[in-house]
Amino acid sequence: MRSGALVGPLAGSAEPAAGASAGVWRRFPSRVATFCLVELQKLRHDRTELFTRAVQPVLWLVIFGETFSRIHAIPTGHVPYLDFLAPGIIAQSGLFIAIFYGIQIIWERDAGVLTKLLVTPTPRSALILGKSFAAGIRALSQVVVVLILSAVLGVGLTSNPADILGAFVIVVLGSAFFSCLSMTVAGVVLKRDRLMGIGQMITMPLFFASNALYPVSIMPGWLRALSTVNPLSYEVDALRGLLLHSKADLGLDYLVLVVAVVTGVAAASSLVGRLAR
Amino acid sequence: MISQLGQSQGPAPAVVCRGLRHRFGDHVAVDGIDLTVASGEVFGLLGPNGAGKTTTIRVLNTLLPVQEGAVTVLGHDVGRSAMAVRRTLGYVPQQLSIEAALTGRENVAWFARLFDVPRRQRRERVSDALDAMGLSDTADRLAGTYSGGMVRRLELAQALVNRPALLILDEPTLGLDPVARDGVWQRVDELRQATGMTVLLTTHYMEEADALCDRVALMHVGQIRAEGTPAALKADLGPGSTLEGVFRRYTGGTLEGDAEAKGGLREVRSTRRAAGRVG
Question: Of B116, B142, B168, which to mutate for an interface test with A (greatest number of A Cβ within 10 Å)?
Fold first, then answer.
């Protein structure tokens, strides 16, 4: 027993607490880094998810991609269909991970951890931002899987490090938004089972109402309209621009994703308190 | 009924509640309580489940809004300066709650970061907190493998890594076996002697209040029915009396009986959750 080692100025006593003067703007990046680190630590202790999550993108690329490449059903211009599909599958893997991320916050509520997190000097928006970037970190593992698989399948993705880094940023932003969407739903429904149901219900429409599998140009008008308001389309557009160097409006893509993340963080953080009551 | 201790010379009181009232819909959980916890004392809120102890704690630690009344923690207004209040707190909720997928050390380091413990001191403060709770040897094991008593001590380490001026423990030994319970009492007692921090705990175990607390307040249906040192409260009732007897005198009920009637389901649920996690 060495309680004596804990003796020191107590937080909140005459001595200002560490970080008290750090200011809100330093606290946000610090919290984001903390939650990302915790996510990496969890992944290090349990790597099964890295493999189980890799199954779906492999199926999409190897079965769906290879087949549709042969029948030339989807016009993708001079880009082979498998090349066209790979960035879409990267975005989709991130979406599938992020859309169920709200389950984690409900689990943390049930386990009492969320209550403790909310009593730390962490603004709720910083908590949500941290968790959403942690979801992005989890999604990045999928980017690596798809990039490796693409290389094996001979997909002509870029090897330019700056473009790959740009793609990482896009995937983190996209996954951060969809995890905020999930945490917002969690804050409304408050129950794991309901969140699972809603997650299942919205994942496929989000995926199909985007340019992940086919170009916007062949969509009927109503689907095109849905695709225009779907952040996944902007994520895929940016990934194609960065990884295939196809024509993309990167500025708009980044802008839409950043605005989506800010909106998502605002929505989810306004509801997270409901989970703690 | 309002304590005079907090108004004596010396440091500002750790907690002051005036006319605190909290409702959930039509149900009044806390019904206008006045409470002062002096700096450096161990103060116990006693009462059965459903008495309003946890609601009071959750207003103090900023989880619930201050609906009515005035509450300050170490001089900070809880309603207006939530962030300043959180910086001074260590909080261990009723439920056993750790991240089972992280090691003990990672669990504590996580909270060190969330409390902005400076990077240079972090490693040492984390080790000290684990050491003080007797977890040094098991710190690098996944917390999911810990026993209930170890989880509770790990939670204390998480709360202590911030060197809180006010440590809030909500039913710290609920669901623990007698040996683990003794272990937690011993650590809390050693800590307050070593650090001089204020401890506010809730419990419905009379022996716990007797063993740990300098002063106690008896809560019943949202109100404080009596307040004082355990010795004084017992002496008031007559020689040979117990805190259980004191409680019966002020409320007309028993702690355990009321616990079953009022908080039965909730307690079963939280114990089940804890059991599920601890395995």
Answer: B116
Instruction: Lay out the sheet containing B68-73: strands in order across.
Output: B27-37, B15-24, B68-73, B76-77
Reading the block at residue B267, the tokens are 């307690």
Cα–Cα distance, A270 to A128 (Å, whole number) = 10
Quote the pLDDT of residue B272: 44
Residues of chain B with pLDDT under 50: 1-8, 257-279
Q: Do A121 and B83 touch (CB under 8 A)?
A: yes
> B86 vs A121: CB contact, 8 Å cut-off?
yes
Burial (Cβ within 10 Å: 0-12, 13-18, ≥19) of residue A201: exposed
Which stretch of DSSP H or E encloses residue A13?
none
Mutate to test the interface with A, among B91, B98, B163, B182 (most CBs of A within 10 A): B163
Global pTM value: 0.86
Asked if the model's pLDDT at residue A71 lies above 60, the reply is: yes
- The predicted-structure confidence for B89-129, as pLDDT tens digits, reads as follows 999 998 889 999 999 999 999 999 999 999 999 999 999 99
Q: Which of A46, A49, A115, A116 to mutate to test the interface with B (most CBs of B within 10 A)?
A: A116
Of A18, A33, A120, the CB nearest to B111: A120
Neighbours of A181 (CB within 10 A): 26
Min distance A47 CA to chain B CA atoms (Å): 11
* A85 within 8 A of A155, measured Cβ to Cβ: no
Contact residues on chain B for A123, CB-CB shorter than 8 A:
83
C-beta atoms of B194 and A6 within 8 A: yes
Edge-to-edge strand ranges of the sheet holding B215-220: B89-92, B166-170, B198-203, B42-46, B215-220, B223-228
Residues contacting residue B235 through CB under 8 Å, at least 6 positions apart = B241
- Sign of the dihedral through C-alpha B212, B214, B218, B219: negative
Tell me the pLDDT tens digit for each residue of A187-232.
Answer: 999 999 999 999 999 999 999 999 999 998 889 999 999 999 999 9
Rg of chain B over Cα atoms, rounded to whole angstroms, equals: 18
Rounded CA separation B71/B78 (Å):
6
In eight-state DSSP terms, residue B46 is E
Going by pLDDT thresholds of 50, 70 and 90, the confidence category of residue A22 is low
* Closest residue in A to B126 (Cα–Cα): A6
Query: In the predicted model, what is the mean pLDDT of residues A122-149?
Result: 92
Q: How far is A102 from chain B (nearest CA, A)?
A: 16
Which residues, 6 or more positions from B141, have their beta carbon under 8 angstroms from its beta carbon?
Answer: B103, B104
Of B200, B206, B203, B202, give the one whose Cα is nearest residue B247: B206
* Residue B61: predicted pLDDT: 93
Q: Which two tokens stand for residue B231?
A: 């010795």
List chain B residues with CB under 8 Å of A1: 132, 134, 187, 190
In degrees and rounded to multiples of 5, residue B218 shows phi and psi of -90, 120
Query: Any alpha helices (H) in B95-212, and if so which ranges?
Result: 104-114, 119-132, 148-160, 178-195, 206-212
Chain B residues touching residue A122 (CB < 8 angstroms)? 114
